[in-house]
Amino acid sequence: MAHKKGQGSTRNGRDSNSQRRGVKVYGGQEIPAGSILVRQVGTVVHPGKNVKLGRDFTLYATITGVVKYERYSKDRKRVSVYPVGDAKATAPAATRVKAVKAVKAKTAAPAAKS
């Protein structure tokens, strides 16, 4: 004979842990090597300079530096990590193009004279 009244069983009571996806580090922040930048399903954000893609599409930094989110196609974004003090980390894309052209012009001019 039962000493307790039977309670029956419930079909509920199970739930999975949350995935905790999303951007973990924002543009302009300094981070150490190995830091997770983005947790995602698929490549919503693609890896750029000094960033690797993990098996579960997690993006992580390979060097210590400053994070920069960039658009590299009409519908694609990428995240890069540049060393601290690098002009690419802070300058807008148009400014970088002008700077690169200026550097190429300076380096090409002495080579042409000799």
Walk me through what this model shows.
There is one protein chain. The protein has helices spanning 87-90, 93-113; strands at 22-23, 30-31, 36-39, 45-47, 51-53, 59-61, 65-71, 77-82. With 114 residues, the chain is an alpha+beta fold. It has a domain at 22-85: Beta Barrel (OB fold (Dihydrolipoamide Acetyltransferase, E2P)), CATH 2.40.50.100. Strands 1-3-6-5 form a 4-stranded antiparallel beta sheet, with no helix packed on it. A hairpin with a 5-residue loop joins strand 5 and strand 6 (59-61). The N and C termini lie far apart (106 Å). The mean pLDDT is 85.
What composes the largest sheet?
4 strands, antiparallel
- As a percent range, the share of strand residues is 25-35%
User: Can you write the helix and strand succession as a string?
Assistant: EEEEEEEEHH
Overall shape: rod-shaped
Q: How many DSSP-defined strands?
A: 8
Mean pLDDT: 85
Number of helices: 2
- In the sheet with the most strands, the strands line up as 1-3-6-5
CATH architecture of one domain: Beta Barrel
CATH homologous superfamily classification of one domain? RNA polymerase II/Efflux pump adaptor protein, barrel-sandwich hybrid domain
User: Whole-number radius of gyration?
Assistant: 25 Å
The computed structural class is alpha+beta
Helical fraction equals: 10-25%
CATH topology of one domain: OB fold (Dihydrolipoamide Acetyltransferase, E2P)
Which stretches are low in confidence, meaning pLDDT under 50 for 5 or more residues running? none
Distance between the terminal alpha carbons, to the nearest Å? 106 Å
Please identify the top-level CATH class of one domain: Mainly Beta
